[in-house]
């Protein structure tokens, strides 16, 4: 038998790229490719790219340069494919800038990878020109992408992303996503349920439903009527084995009353909501075409908090959007003060070719953007530190995901996505443990197991592990 071919996939950007990378790996596993975590010994390298900001978009070219050099030094040839949002946005331009690329494939064509790779192979080693596939095909790729094997599910651990909605029809004036991912499409509910059941059979306990506008989800159910995100979450929470459900990224405009109530009614829905606001200034929100104002955002925050008092929020912010004045920026700072975020992502506005904002006058100077982002991030960091500090002494369930750095250590996640380090047995991975938080640092929390699924199933081991970290410290 010939050696299996080795595949290395590197993803940049958002969680959808992480999910897509797994689906590409599953597709190529059927063609005999096995995953490797080193690009150097791979026969096929896929760079799964992100186009959201200029810096993200440029990363692929430095990576391609590095790959080419390594290939030249080793005197060997690898096949190199560029996938993801840069592939969609730049297409054949990539082949002009980086001659080592064999294949450029956009996000809606991943089901065609085997035939595209075969075609690129037929072109041979001298790379007269690579192959470019960036059409938005009529067929639904999800109908053709094979599911992961049980072994692949187990390797990926007890948490999983599942794409339920892809693309965006909102057209915020700064954003490339509507062009790179295409129009908003929702997957049918029964197909998502099948996928989640299969993941749960393989040991997955927590699913994060992902979409560029996940709360605009409107997929067909088994009876052929349209189901919304609340119905989908409800159905998934019922799947045996699934203990936790999350969804991201939602848009404030699509946070309806039903979904807000779901945060009160569905215990498996985690009390943590990522809700991007971008700016606290109504003038800037209008120029961004966000279709919501600060009042709507604050109103949603209040209503979600009323439904689920222990909920925490995270958000995305852009500073230095064209025309943003000191007063506009002050509005953003004030909104942040008002809400209090547990975690956040903030970015300097990056002008993206082809978007309406790129052509707007009054671009904000780099120095001003830098000043504003520092002030904003300092405030957001203080809020995160305060939120984490308030967790000290609290008890909550963590989902144990993997071994820690040191023997006997395990790492899990709190309901608020914080990393939590505990002492415990390897067999507890994939279970919910009740943990009392003892220490808080900037990167993670640490705590002591007080109970939980593993210990209920193995009462004999309870006394050995519960409270063990305290003993170790003493
Ligand atoms: N669909 C989500 C997120 C899309 S991209 C939403 O509707 O909010 C993730 C984040 O990147 C955005 O929320 C925004 O804060 C940031 N972003 C997008 N385009 C950007 C640009 N041109 N410059 C700087 N940040 C940008
Ligand atoms: Fe981009 Fe706006 Fe769509 Fe989010 S809602 S993906 S920011 S266009
Ligand atoms: Fe980037 Fe595309 Fe995601 S641009 S953020 S990889 S949708």
Automatic annotation (TrEMBL):
Q: According to the UniProt entry, what is the EC number of this protein? A: 2.8.4.3
Give the highest taxon in the source lineage. Bacteria
Task: Write down the chemical reaction(s) this protein catalyses.
Answer: N(6)-dimethylallyladenosine(37) in tRNA + (sulfur carrier)-SH + AH2 + 2 S-adenosyl-L-methionine = 2-methylsulfanyl-N(6)-dimethylallyladenosine(37) in tRNA + (sulfur carrier)-H + 5'-deoxyadenosine + L-methionine + A + S-adenosyl-L-homocysteine + 2 H(+)
Pfam hit, one: UPF0004
Task: List residues of the MTTase N-terminal domain.
Answer: 5-122
Q: Which PROSITE patterns match?
A: MTTASE_N (PS51449), MTTASE_RADICAL (PS01278), RADICAL_SAM (PS51918), TRAM (PS50926)
UniProt protein name: tRNA-2-methylthio-N(6)-dimethylallyladenosine synthase
What is the species listed in this Swiss-Prot or TrEMBL entry? Ancylobacter dichloromethanicus
Could you read off the lineage of the organism from its UniProt record?
Bacteria, Pseudomonadati, Pseudomonadota, Alphaproteobacteria, Hyphomicrobiales
């Amino acid at each position: 038998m010939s050696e299996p071919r080795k595949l290395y996939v590197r993803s940049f950007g958002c969680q959808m790229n992480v999910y897509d990378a797994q689906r590409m790996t599953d597709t190529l596993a059927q063609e005999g490719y096995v995953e490797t975590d080193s690009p150097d010994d791979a026969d096929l390298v896929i760079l799964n790219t992100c186009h959201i900001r200029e810096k993200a978009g440029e990363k692929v070219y430095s990576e391609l340069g590095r790959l080419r050099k390594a290939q030249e030094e080793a005197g060997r040839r690898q096949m190199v494919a560029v996938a993801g949002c840069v592939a969609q946005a730049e297409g054949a331009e990539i082949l002009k800038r980086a001659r080592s690329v064999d294949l450029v494939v956009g996000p809606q064509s991943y089901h065609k990878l085997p035939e595209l790779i075969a075609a690129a192979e037929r072109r041979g080693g001298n790379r007269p020109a690579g192959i470019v596939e960036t059409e938005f095909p009529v067929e639904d790729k999800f109908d053709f992408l094979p599911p992961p094997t049980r072994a692949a599910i187990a390797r990926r651990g007890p948490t999983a992303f599942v794409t339920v909605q892809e693309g965006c029809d909102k057209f915020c004036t700064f954003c490339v996503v509507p062009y790179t991912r295409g129009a908003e499409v929702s997957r049918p509910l029964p197909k998502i349920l099948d996928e989640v059941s299969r993941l749960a059979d393989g040991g997955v306990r927590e699913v994060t439903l992902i979409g560029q506008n996940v709360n605009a989800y409107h997929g067909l159910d088994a009876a052929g009527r349209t189901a919304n995100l609340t119905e989908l979450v409800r159905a998934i929470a019922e799947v045996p084995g699934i203990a936790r459900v999350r969804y991201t990224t939602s848009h404030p405009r699509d946070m309806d009353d039903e979904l807000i109530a779901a945060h009160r009614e569905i215990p498996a829905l985690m009390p943590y909501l990522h809700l991007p606001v971008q700016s606290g200034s109504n003038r800037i929100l209008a120029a961004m075409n966000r279709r919501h104002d600060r009042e709507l955002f604050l109103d949603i925050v209040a209503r979600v908090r009323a439904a689920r008092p222990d909920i925490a929020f995270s958000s995305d912010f852009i500073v230095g959007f064209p025309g943003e004045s000191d007063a506009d920026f002050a509005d953003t700072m004030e909104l942040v003060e008002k809400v209090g975020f547990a975690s956040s992502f903030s970015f300097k506005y990056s002008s993206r070719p082809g978007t309406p904002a790129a052509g707007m006058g009054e671009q904000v100077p780099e120095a001003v953007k830098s000043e504003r982002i520092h002030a904003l991030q300092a405030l957001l960091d203080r809020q995160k530190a305060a939120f984490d500090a308030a967790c000290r002494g609290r008890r909550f369930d963590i989902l144990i995901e993997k071994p820690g750095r040191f023997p006997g250590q395990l790492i899990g996640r709190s309901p608020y996505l914080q990393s939590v380090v505990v002492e415990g047995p390897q067999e507890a991975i994939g279970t919910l443990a009740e943990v009392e938080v003892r220490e808080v640092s900037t990167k993670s929390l640490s705590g002591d197991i007080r109970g939980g699924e593993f210990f209920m199933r193995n009462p004999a081991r309870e006394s050995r592990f519960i409270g063990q970290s305290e003993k170790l410290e003493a």
